[in-house]
């Protein structure tokens, strides 16, 4: 399944630090189109559900607490080769290892507060987009 879509969140650290505009600008300049967009917040329950795949990992509790600590931006993006190109644009999970100029290199401070999320597969992009947006909110 190839959808040419990915799902992203601007995480609470990047929102709190005033980076929404700069991050959206980088995403647009990289050629991604916004097909769904919202400013929202996750409850601990919703954050736990979103990251359920990591529930056995040692960082899960902290991740859930961080992701429900403040507002986020959620968006579905469209572009050829969206998953791979967006993962390149955001850089490695650990900002210390992210290439220069990537969003995490520029805007993230640590591996847990790492500024942005990007789906890792077409299947997950669809699941994650559906988690945040109902059918009439997706274009
Ligand atoms: P990804 O967001 O780059 O796809 P994943 O391995 O799917 O990375 O992990 C999901 C999120 O969990 C990461 O973005 C990060 O916020 C957090 N995380 C991952 N590994 C660690 C860790 O070793 N310590 C703390 N938080 C982590």
From TrEMBL:
Q: Name one GO molecular function term.
A: ATP binding
Q: What is its EC number?
A: 2.7.4.6
One GO BP annotation here? GTP biosynthetic process
Q: Where does ATP bind?
A: 11, 59, 87, 93, 104, 114
Q: Which Pfam families match?
A: NDK
Q: Where in the cell is it found?
A: Cytoplasm
In terms of CDD domains, this protein maps to: NDPk_I (cd04413)
Instruction: Spell out the protein name for this chain.
Output: Nucleoside diphosphate kinase
- The source organism is Mucilaginibacter glaciei
